[in-house]
Amino acid sequence: MKEIKAIIIDDEERARDSLSSIIKEYCKDVSIVDTSSNVPDGVISINKHKPDVVFLDIEMPDYNGFELFSFFNEINFDIIFVTAYSQYAIKAFEVSAIDYLLKPVDIEALQKSLEKVKTKQTQVALQKRLELLKENFTAEEINKIALPMGDGLLFVEMKDIILFEADGAYTNLYMNNGSKILVSKRLKFFEDILQNRTNFFRPHRSHLININYIKKYIKGDNQIVMDNLVELSLSRDLKQDFEALLKEFKLFV
User: Fold this and answer.
1) 181 and which of 127, 173, 198, 205 could share a cystine (Cβ 3.0–4.6 Å)?
2) Which residues contact 186 (CB under 8 A, 6 or more apart)?
């Protein structure tokens, strides 16, 4: 098997040394060709060594990790972010389909990330995924999501999603253009991502809806009809919360 060349860019010496040690011990087919403590030195190292993958910290002095990409016209190496960021920020990585490792680095998570590098799963639409990550990372809310498809990734705006529908280990997304997209993620994944988006509500276990697309609420029958005419039930236990949310958005009096 071809040896994977890797570079670590992190301003913390302890973090660089720790990751290097873990890789040397548990990832025998990976060679750390260089480490850098800042982005400019990292750019020089990348141009010199032509690595297969770069382990990149985000919060660094002078230049942050995102600014690394402005030094390259084309990114022909894989990226694995290594971060200590908060839970919300991690959602930005997940919905952007960008690989990341949390500090302190977990060995199994590291091995899984490197397996993707070997199979080139991380290279798909890398530039667009990085742009999406930056957009979601700096925004107060997740605005766009990368959906895994059979032939790559589909990028959609959150505001264009009418509802999510559970389908076993998959989820159907109903879009405002009339399309229906099947995604290999459970409904809980999207519920967790959208927990801070008050316009999305889970009326029962099978659906997660965008209340901006509600066409009709049949209060007595606990039924909701969406703009695309999909009808769904409202759990009795959630009726009070649902009506309070509608009042908050001035959709119910």
Assistant:
1) 173
2) 166, 169, 170, 171
pTM to 2 decimal places: 0.76
Dist. CA 251–CA 253, nearest whole Å:
7
Q: According to the CATH classification, is domain 158-248 in 3.40.640.10?
A: no
Give the residue range(s) of CATH 2.40.50.1020 domains in the chain. 158-248
Q: Of residues 19 and 220, which shows the higher confidence score?
A: 19
pLDDT in tens, 197-224: 889 999 999 999 999 999 999 988 999 9
Alpha-carbon distance 214 to 217, whole Å? Answer: 7
The CA distance from 14 to 111, in Å, is 20
Q: Say how far apart CA 167 and CA 184 lie, in whole Å.
A: 9
Closest CA to 84 of 57, 122, 109, 55: 57
Could you tell me if 30 and 48 are in contact, meaning their C-beta atoms sit under 8 angstroms apart? no
Amino acid (one-letter) located at 159: K
pLDDT band at 74 (very low <50, low <70, confident <90, very high): confident
Q: Is there a contact between 226 and 163 (Cβ–Cβ < 8 Å)?
A: yes
Tokens of 66: 């995102």
Domain ranges in the chain with CATH number 3.40.50.2300: 4-138
The residues, any chain, with a CB within 8 Å of residue 21's CB and separated by 6 or more, are none
